[in-house]
Each structure stands twice: as C-alpha cells, then as structure tokens.
Amino acid sequence: MISSRWLEKRKAHWKRLEYLVEASRQRSISALRPEELQELALLYRQVASDLSTVREDPASTQLATYLNRILGRAHNLIYMGRKASTRGIWNFYWNVYPAVFRETFSDTFAAFTIFLAAAAVGVLLSIADASFLRHFLGPQMMDTIEQHKMWTDSIVSVKPAASSAILTNNISVCFATFALGITAGIGTIYMMLLNGLLIGIIGAACWREGMSLSLWSFVAAHGSLELPAIFISGGAGIGIARGLLFPGQLPRRLSLVLAGSRSVRLILGTVPMLIVAGLVEGFISPSPVSPVLKFSLAAVLGILLVLYLSKRPPKPAVSSTRASLNTIVAK
C-alpha cells in the first residue's frame, strides 16, 4: 500500500513534469530553457521509477494510468517529436522560433564574435601586406577591383538564375555550418572563421581602391538578413557541440538529442530569412538603385528582424488534467 506521505512528496514532481510537457505541447520542446530541458529529462526518469512503484499497488490503478499517460507524452516529446501541420508550422515560426533564438542567444553571440574576430584579422592582414589580397582573392578578382568594377555586376543580366543560385548556396553554407557542430564544434568554428576572414579581406580590398560605398551598398540590403542567418547557423552548430561535450547530469546521448532538437529548430528558422535575402541579393543588391534606398531597405529589414526575434510567446495554459491528479491522490 502506497503511503499518503509518499504521494504528497512525489506529487510536486508529477505536476512539474506535467507542466513542462504541457508547455512543450503548446510551444514545442525547443521553447524550453536549457535548465528546463535538463529538468524534463531528470523528471522523466524519476517519474518512470515512480510508475514502477505505483504499479506494485493494486489499489493505485488510476494513478498508474495517469503517470503512464504523462510519461508517454514526455517520451514522445524527447525522442519522437511531432508531425508537422500548417497550424504547427505557423505556431513554430510565429511563437516558438523567437523564444528558441533568445534562449540560445549566447551560442549565436559566440558565433558572431568568432566571425567578427576573423573579419578584424582579415582587415589587419590586408592592410599590413597588399600582396596578401592578391594571394587570397586571386588575380582575376583583384584586377576587377583595381579597375573599380564590382564583380557582382554580372548578376544584373541573369537575375532569376542568379537569385536561385544564391539562395541554394546560402542555404548550403548555413546548413553545413550547423551540421559541422557534430565535429565537437571544430567544423562550425572553421566555417565562421573562413566567412569572417573573407568579408574582412574583401572589405579591406575595396577600401584600398575607394570602392567601400559600392561594396557595402551591395551587401547591406541582403546582408541585413543573410549575416544574421549565418550567425544563427553558427550558434546552432555550437549548440550541438555543447550538448555533445558538456552533457551535465544527463546521459550524453540524451543531452545530444535535446541539443540537436533545439539546434534543428534554430536552423529551420533561418530558411525564410535566406529566401528573402536571396531574392534581395539577386534582384535589388546589384541593381543601379540609389545606395540610400538600399541602405534604407537594409534598415527596414534589420528592424523587422529585431522586432520579430524579440517577440514574446503567449504563456501556456494550465492543463485540464492537472485537476485529475488532485482527484486521484485524494482518493
């Protein structure tokens, strides 16, 4: 016979697991904070042990059914995920993704810092040794810059094809940066260093030839979305590496599963950003439109992105099954 003292002691754990499951059901598991994810995993194991104890008591059939239902939902969240639907996709992008971004912001900021440091190194190397530019960028590109021509001018004549190629390339780069997180973050860091170094060197090369306005008016509009997408992809890769290298109290496999779930959602959120960036880069960035208009578009897109990522999701409603636990325990 299970004692009422044991029930009172364990009831708080069951309620907490039910709350986390309900919050995950409404907003997706990726919306939980890292500490809540660890708590969910630990509670899952504890409540599974409680269920084994409850099943030994023939008089606790209702309680066993309740615990089994909660454990089943928790298991599906952790290991199986949910089927996509139109409503679910909308909820993900409108409510879940901004929360996921904020909860993993430290990883994204780390990726941004690596990128920025590499860009600074690229600028310093280019200023220190002019021959480095020709070696890194190649004679053809440097000849174009020295002639005060933008190597991007050819995009204007093939806009649809260029936009498609740009979009495909950007998505490939971002997904590769994310996936390389499984290399303990080494591959992700390499990609961030390479991209940062490249932007720094190109920026320095154009500055030396008095083409900074041409370069940054080209980059600004699509870069306001493309660069954040790259930083987020780097953050997603770093998140996977963190789950692999620092599991904490969780089994390494479970830590990697949870980190992977959040990182996958983080990278999926960059797809709409990259689609818009690809269209802008293919049709607007290389066009003869005034630089003022391009910078204005960059500002508008950047502000909209910040507002979107700052959006707060609605609070999860309390599950109606919470009352059933009190009824079961009271019996």
Helix and strand topology:
Layout: H1 4-27, H2 34-55, H3 61-80, H4 86-103, H5 105-128, H6 130-137, H7 139-146, H8 159-179, H9 186-208, H10 212-245, H11 252-268, H12 270-283, H13 291-309, H14 322-330
Helix pairs in contact: 1-2, 1-3, 2-3, 5-6, 5-9, 5-10, 6-7, 8-9, 8-10, 8-12, 9-10, 10-11, 10-12, 10-13
A few lines on this structure:
The protein has helices spanning 4-27, 34-55, 61-80, 86-103, 105-128, 130-137, 139-146, 159-179, 186-208, 212-245, 252-268, 270-283, 291-309, 322-330.
What does this structure look like?
The structure is a single chain. It is built from 14 helices and no strands. The chain folds into two domains: 4-94 and 314-330; 103-309, no CATH class. The protein has 331 residues and is mainly α.
